User: What shape does this take?
Amino acid sequence: MDNRFQSIRGFNDIFFPESYKLQSIEDTAVRYFNLYNFREIRTPLLEKTDLFVRSIGTSTDIVEKEMYTFEDSGGESLSLRPEGTASAVRAYLEHSIDKQDPVQKWFYRGPMFRHERPQKGRFRQFYQAGCESLGIADPFIDVEIIKLADTIINALPVRGITIRINSIGCPECRPGYIKVLKSYLGTIKESLCDDCKRRIDTNPLRVLDCKKQGCIAATANAPKTTDYLCGDCSAHFNTVKTGLDGLRLSFLTDPRLVRGLDYYSRTVFEFTAEDAGAQNAVLAGGRYDYLVELFGGTHTPAIGFAMGIERIAGLIDMPSTQGPDVFIIPLTEESKQKALAIALLLRRGGRTCETGFGEKTLKSMMRRADKLQSFSVAIIGNDELKEGYVTLKRLSDGHQEKIKDADIVNAVQSIKA
Ligand code: ATP
Ligand code: MG
Assistant: This one.
């Protein structure tokens, strides 16, 4: 019998260099979040189920079928977080941050969990980095946030991304639109998939979000949200578009873009990769001006987005990885202490290095240095130990020098140049 354990389907172990790719994407996002003066918030991975049900909405894909929900031993229904916004808003109110200063700019990164069918670009545990701007209604915030998303994407080796935007109105104008949409969908009901037939009554907006070709074709002439916006929503959307134009940011106004979560209002946006198949959304977000009050706070306009780290990684070629600058070879037991001191000097000087501890012979250490694709080796034998130098050898051409201990950082610098 085989006693080895296996991970859960859709939950991945991620190794180097894939992990390095994800790390670089996250680090790039964090760098720009900081430049835009967003502050990090870390919220729990587990929350009370009701938090997500009430914010994301009962007739959404996430709540209907994608949540990891279970009862803990105390009988309380808990769910692994499927997204980041609900927790951020909960924290905002729970800690009365709205009362201290309602204007907050937060970012987060970490795993999210959705029980979906695992496939390319779709996992059950996946990583997001995202941001939330709370407390400001000004449409120029929308412009700034979309520009931030665009800046992050452009700082990565990712091309061929389309920015799609739309406005889905507010509680003032959306009901009127929903009514028109509902009666339109009634006329084409027979051409819709079974899910969408059901959605006509439960969540008609979601029909426009359906990825099935049949539904996309059938709803090609559906009424557009933007034709039914109230004056304020219409003005807001126009300012967003003008602001984006002013930045020379090209975007597409996509009347099908409605987003799958209930809490959105007004501006919604998505960044899509044209050739990535059905899982082509790499980043998505929008305004959620009514979520804070839905959770019992005072009216607080807000907007945010989340980027799918693996989806973006899927568009980036594997980075060429480098070995360490130096592999340190202690030839004797006595030279190990010095090997460690040299390694510390190098690392303090910003040079990557690896030690040969654990290998017994010069030959095995050289083999290991080769395997790690080290740029050079620093050999430390008894002579080196006694006289205060190391023998630094460049592996590409065998070039070799005696380097005084204290000069090691500069010496590595100059043989790499
Ligand atoms: P999709 O339409 O592809 O299901 P979504 O609308 O459910 O996406 P959001 O809730 O907007 O996705 O999440 C923001 C981003 O997180 C998505 O644009 C995508 O890049 C990423 N994402 C969402 N679900 C997954 C998943 N199961 N696996 C990997 N990445 C995901
Ligand atoms: Mg989804």
Notes: The mean pLDDT is 95. Residues 61, 260 surround magnesium ion (ligand 2) (CB under 6 Å).
